[in-house]
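quick one
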Amino acid sequence: MIKRNANYTNLAKGYLFPEIAKRRREYQAAHPDAKIISLGIGNTTEPLTPHIVEEMKNFITAMGTVEGYEGYQDDSAGMPKLRERIAQVMYGGKIKASEVYVSDGAKCDLGRIQTMFGSGVNVAVQDPSYPVYVDGTVMAGAGGKEPVTETGFKDITYMPCLPENGFFPDLSVVKKNSLIYICSPNNPTGACATRKNLEDLVAFAKANDCFVLYDGAYSAFIRDASIPKTIYEIPGADEVAIEMQSFSKPAGFTGVRLGWCVVPEKLKFEDGSAVHTAWEREINTQFNGASNIAQAGGYAALDEIGLKEMEETINYYLENGRLIKEALEGENFKAANVEIYFTGNAPYVWAKFNGKKSWDVFDAILDQCHVVCTPGAGFGPSGESFIRFSSFGHRENVIEACNRLKTLKL
Ligand code: PL4
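structure w/ PL4:
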C-alpha cells in the first residue's frame, strides 16, 4: 500500500471555507425556507466590467482564427506585454517585467512557493491569518512536525495581531532564517501595515536573514494615501521580499483566475544563488502558465479604462463594508460590548464579541439572522471571539443582512 505523506497527517482537521459551506448547507437542509445571505467567504459578486469583457471577447474571437491563435507561452511566466504592464502600472517601473511572474492566482503561488524552501525552513505567520499560509507550510513539511494543538502548530511562530498592537506583529518573536508571511491590507482583520511598520519589517528581515512573503491581494482597496500599496515602496525590500498579488478581488477574477508574484533579482539564497532562477525552474516544471484568455482580461484591467472601472467596483464593495460597520454599531451590539474594526481600506469588517466563542456567534447569527459570516477562530488562535464580515455581496443583500443583524440578540 502507498503511505500517506506524513505531513498531511499533521494538518488541522478541515479547511476553513469548505467547513463554513458545509454548515450552511446543513442549516439550509434543516430550514428549507431560510433565505440565507452570505457575508462569509470573500467571494466577488459584481459582474466583470464592460471593458474587460470586450477585450476578452476580442481575444477569444482572435483565438478562433489561424492568425490569432495562441497555444503555450514560451515560458510559464506570462505574456510579456502583461508582465510589462504590471511592472509599469503597479510598480511604477521600480520592478522589472522580468521580475513579474503571472499566475493563476495568489493562493496558487502561496502554495507553490514553499517548494523552494524545503522542510527545514522556519515559518512565522500573523495570527490571525489566511489559513493557506499555515496549511501550505504544514503540507510542505515545514513547521508541521508536531500535530496541531489548541494554540496552533508547535513549530510555526504565531505572531499575535490584536487591537492592542494595532494588528501589526511584534517581530522580536521571529526566529532567524524565517519566512515571514505578512498580509496587508490584512485578511481577516482589514488592518494595513503603515510605512513605518514595513520599514521595520524590511530592516528586521535583513538583520535576521529572513524572507518576507508579502500577500498584497487586497492592495487595490487602499484609500489612505499614506499606506504603501506594495512592499517595494520600501527601499531595500527587493533584497528580502516576494510579493503575491491577485486580480481576484479588484477585477472580479475569483473565477477567471489570474494573479502574479514578484520575485526580485536581488533576492538571494544563503548559497548566493538567485531565488528568481529557482522560481523560474519551479513554475516551468509545476505550472504551464495562466490562461491566455484570463491574461487578456488582466491586460485590459490595467489600462486607463480598466483601472477606472475597477475603482468603481472596489468603491461599491467598500460602501458595503461601511454599511455593515454601521449595522454593527447598533444598540444590540453595543449592549453586548462588541468592538468593531473597519479601516475603509479592505473589504472586511472585523468584530470582537467579548466573552464569546467565534463558532457560537457564527451559529447565533446563522440561526437568528440567516446570515453566514466567518468565525475568527478559523484564522488562528488569536482570532477567537472575533467574527469576520465580508463586504462582497449585492447591495440589496447586504442591506437586508444589515437589517437582520440589527435584530440579533446576543
Ligand atoms: C475562499 C489574503 C478569500 N476558496 O483568488 P486568489 O487565489 O488570487 O487569492 C486568494 C487569496 C489570497 N490571499 C488572501 C486572500 O484572502 C485570498 C482569498 N481569500 C477569503 O474569504 O478569505 C477567499 C477564500 C477560497 C480560498 O480558500 O482561498
